[in-house]
Amino acid sequence: MDPLVASLKISASGLEAQSSRLRVVSENLANARSTGDTPGADPYRRKTVSFTQELDRAAGVDTVEIKKIGLDRSDFRTEYDPGNPAADANGVVKYPNVNILVEMADMREANRSYEANLQSIRQARDLINSTIDLLRSSS
User: Fold this and answer.
1) How crowded is residue 121: how many other Cβ atoms within 10 Å of its Cβ?
2) For residues 97 and 77, is the Cβ–Cβ distance under 8 A?
3) Burial of 137 by CB count in 10 Å (0-12 exposed, 13-18 middle, 19+ buried)?
4) Model pTM?
5) Are 67 and 19 in contact, with CB atoms under 8 Å apart?
6) Rounded to an integer, what is the distance from CA 118 to the centroid of its chain?
7) Burial of 90 per CB tally in 10 Å (0-12, 13-18, 19+)
């Protein structure tokens, strides 16, 4: 397979993976302060994304794929707030195990990776267009 087309496949898989990662980070941020439905119930649990390397046999290149969207098993944050409807009998409310700073850092990393893959696609496209222009001008 043509190396430029192979680079397009690799970058496209990176775009898709980072897009999924951004969706998971957005979901985590949206639920950072949610509580359980009933007093003492567990709130939203932070989601994590794992990647894996997959061989694209048609292109003959390794691409990135989402291996799993899992759950972070760390402890929930707790706060004493007896007036909250989600408080247990002791007045303690469980909040999601989402750290906004970690999520923001993860979002920046995913965004930068997405942009790098997008730039790779742009450069490959420009090289393909330049090759076509050279072929046209030589005939």
Assistant:
1) 16
2) yes
3) exposed
4) 0.86
5) no
6) 15
7) exposed
